[in-house]
Amino acid sequence: MSQHGFLKYDIDLRSDTVTTPTAEMRQAMVTAELGNDVFREDPTILSLETKMSTLLGKEKGLFVASGTMGNLLSIMVHCPGSDFDIIVGDKSHINKYEHAGATCVAGVLVKTVPNQSDGTINLEDIKMALNSGTEEHKTKTKMIGLENTHNMCGGVVLNPEYCRAVRQLIENQDIALHLDGARIFNAAVALSVPPSELAAPFDSVSVCLSKDLGAPVGSVLCGSSQFIEQARRLRKMLGGGWAQAGVLAACGLVALDGYETRIALDHNNATVFANKIKQIPGLSVDMSTVQTNITFFSVVNDKITAQQLVQKLSAKESGKSSVNVGVVAFGPTMIRAVFHPQISTQQVEMAAEKIAGIMSEF
Ligand SMILES: *Cc1c(COP(=O)(O)O)cnc(C)c1O
């Protein structure tokens, strides 16, 4: 327990947002060249925006407070009116975890279609949900949103051909294609392709610096110059016009330096962990979903629920070890563990041992 009363974990696998800035990031914050970004005078932010848009093969970038803000701004720019809808997967972050910002703030109808286990949405389902705007009873579809990697499908990587097929499906229909690329760098590392190749079919891409890249705060939204100019105006409206935020952008620049090696280690840790978990009686893992830095596993023992296992893991003295481990339960049987730059391979072993010790009591 910290002095502030919240629980601290020796091994925190609840999310890749739990990382704190590295010594190198803290140093970069101290020495960052700063200016007022609302006047477009913060050199560190300008460097970060240029670096990210170059990596993604887009004209411009915009540093924003969060991935949620990046997605919301994209919806607002792509749907400039009150008579529009967007199509996203039912397991998408936009649908499940963004407090209906698309509806409440952007004023669009959000139409969800089923996500398949590989993170895709069937092309047929998209076709069925699409409205051309000619019918008087219906909103016009203005945006389709995909997610890569797909968090709630287990951090799975979207097939690049699939993304190109979606692009083709909506060609010349005045519909934008947006990518929630919170973890696009994980997808790029998993496929050994440049991130720009994965971003190519999309009009806009939002990338989180604060997930597996390991920075403390922020996302970068990328797209055409015109798109980013509009997003910039609306960012001010949302209260996201920040002054010397180069102190934060400095960490983003450090995070992008040599990300391939770091991210590959996290992918390896997720797989090592999954292989250990699947050998524990009472637990199971669908190895086909373990592609990046996320491992979902399920409890298949009637005597213990996912929630109870999570609870026991958070106690120092349980099972056969004295470390505590943070993971998150999703529903009665599923548990998610996320790997990030502040988890070592030794900690992966220790976490798996802790879990095995607890499960052996049931
Ligand atoms: C975390 C996440 C976001 C939102 O990022 P925040 O910075 O937490 O707002 C969006 N999409 C996906 C897939 C995410 O995992």
Written description of the protein model:
This protein is α/β, with parallel strands linked by helices. It has helices spanning 23-31, 43-56, 67-78, 93-96, 101-104, 123-129, 160-169, 184-191, 195-199, 225-237, 246-256, 259-277, 306-313, 345-359; strands at 11-12, 60-64, 84-89, 109-113, 140-147, 176-180, 204-208, 219-223, 283-284, 294-299, 325-326, 328-330, 334-338. It has two domains: 11-17 and 259-359, Aspartate Aminotransferase, domain 1 (Alpha-Beta Complex), CATH 3.90.1150; 32-256, Aspartate Aminotransferase, domain 2, CATH 3.40.640.10. It has 14 helices and 13 strands. The chain has a seven-stranded mixed sheet with strand order 2-8-7-6-5-3-4, with helices on both faces. Helix 7 links the parallel strand 5 (140-147) and strand 6 (176-180). Helix 12 runs parallel beside helix 14. The longest helix has 19 residues, at 259-277. The chain is globular, with a radius of gyration of 21 Å. The model has no long low-confidence stretch (mean pLDDT 97). Pyridoxal-5'-phosphate binds next to helix 3.
Question: Which features does this protein show?
Answer:
38% helix; binds pyridoxal-5'-phosphate; 2 domains; globular; Aspartate Aminotransferase, domain 2; four-stranded antiparallel β-sheet; seven-stranded mixed β-sheet; 362 residues; alpha/beta; 13 strands; Aspartate Aminotransferase, domain 1; 14 helices
